[in-house]
């Protein structure tokens, strides 16, 4: 069975009575990036087909003509015709979208469940990159584009729309933008907002009450304990998480390991006492914790012990006992 058939089967099942019971199995299947791409393509085609009927073009058509008349064609012919229409819609909607205004896009949730980042093109042309283990709810309406970052971190590359503001809720606060690029992350310490391009407005509370900060490119702001702090300069480290490499410059070994562990994948653990003089300098692939651990071990005279299924332990080499 092809990925497209699998995606169609999951699409139907996750909208049926057993959706809750099948959630964990679906998420395991969806964790494959190619499966996710096939499923998202189907969802986009479905959503686009639904709002087509609400456009001026759709409303101008007499849908009553589609009702069966007294002289009915054989059912096989009707099924074949319906299948052909569906195939035409799936092929045509990505092309029709550039000519039809987006009037409404239903709510949906997207997630990055695997060990790699995931980039999603939204219906308005905006692009979202989700970090590992991140979840985002999307609710586009006629007067606003509203999203909620439920967990993790995301980068928003916003398509300009003077009529519908682009708003991202995270924790207690909200970010408002029009055409810009910014990051939002949700962590136990609070919500962090980093601006890369354009201008954004960070609000302390989603209802508009409380303090408001306007950021310039290269600044970041934190919402901690429900309070919006003053913007400060962002570092290159704050902005480089979407790249495949991670760089360290005389970073203490324990801090470098902690940063790698925030990425996901195989966890690295330090066993025993490590000298504070052990500092890491260099660039490593974010998706290769084993390569990082092996390089660190060779640099500092450590050993790497692999503990399945997902742990790497850095330990000091045992010295030979003198007889």
From TrEMBL:
<feature type="transmembrane region" description="Helical">
    <location>
        <begin position="75"/>
        <end position="93"/>
    </location>
</feature>
<keyword id="KW-0472">Membrane</keyword>
<keyword id="KW-0812">Transmembrane</keyword>
<dbReference type="InterPro" id="IPR006860">
    <property type="entry name" value="FecR"/>
</dbReference>
<keyword id="KW-1133">Transmembrane helix</keyword>
<dbReference type="Pfam" id="PF04773">
    <property type="entry name" value="FecR"/>
</dbReference>
<dbReference type="Pfam" id="PF16220">
    <property type="entry name" value="DUF4880"/>
</dbReference>
<dbReference type="InterPro" id="IPR012373">
    <property type="entry name" value="Ferrdict_sens_TM"/>
</dbReference>
<dbReference type="InterPro" id="IPR032623">
    <property type="entry name" value="FecR_N"/>
</dbReference>
<protein>
    <submittedName>
        <fullName>Uncharacterized protein</fullName>
    </submittedName>
</protein>
<feature type="domain" description="FecR protein">
    <location>
        <begin position="115"/>
        <end position="201"/>
    </location>
</feature>
<dbReference type="GO" id="GO:0016989">
    <property type="term" value="F:sigma factor antagonist activity"/>
</dbReference>
<feature type="domain" description="FecR N-terminal">
    <location>
        <begin position="6"/>
        <end position="43"/>
    </location>
</feature>
């Amino acid at each position: 069975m092809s990925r497209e058939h699998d995606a169609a089967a999951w699409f139907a099942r996750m909208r049926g009575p057993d959706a809750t019971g099948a959630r964990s199995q679906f998420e395991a299947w969806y964790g494959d990036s190619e499966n996710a791409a096939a499923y998202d393509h189907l969802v986009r085609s479905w959503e686009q087909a639904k709002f087509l009927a609400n456009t001026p073009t759709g409303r101008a058509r007499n849908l009553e003509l589609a009702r069966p008349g007294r002289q009915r064609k054989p059912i096989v012919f009707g099924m074949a015709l319906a299948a052909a229409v569906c195939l035409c819609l799936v092929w045509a909607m990505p092309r029709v979208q550039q000519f039809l205004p987006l009037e409404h896009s239903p709510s949906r949730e997207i997630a990055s469940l695997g060990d790699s980042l995931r980039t999603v093109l939204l219906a308005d042309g905006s692009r979202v990159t989700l970090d590992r283990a991140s979840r985002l709810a999307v609710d586009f309406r006629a007067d606003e584009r509203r999203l909620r970052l439920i967990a993790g971190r995301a980068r928003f590359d916003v398509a300009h729309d003077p009529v519908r503001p682009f708003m991202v809720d995270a924790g207690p606060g909200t970010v408002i933008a029009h055409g810009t690029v910014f990051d939002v992350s949700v962590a136990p310490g609070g919500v962090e907002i980093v601006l890369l391009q354009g201008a954004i407005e960070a609000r302390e509370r989603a209802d508009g009450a409380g303090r408001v900060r306007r950021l310039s490119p290269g600044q970041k702001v934190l919402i901690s304990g429900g309070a919006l702090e003053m913007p400060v300069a962002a570092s290159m480290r704050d902005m480089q998480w979407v790249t495949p490499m991670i760089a360290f410059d005389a970073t203490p070994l324990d801090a470098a390991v902690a940063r790698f562990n925030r990425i996901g994948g195989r966890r690295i653990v330090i066993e025993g006492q490590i000298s504070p003089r052990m500092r890491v300098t260099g660039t490593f692939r974010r998706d290769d914790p084993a390569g990082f651990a092996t390089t660190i071990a060779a640099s500092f005279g450590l050993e790497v012990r692999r503990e399945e299924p997902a742990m790497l332990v850095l330990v000091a080499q045992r010295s030979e006992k003198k007889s």
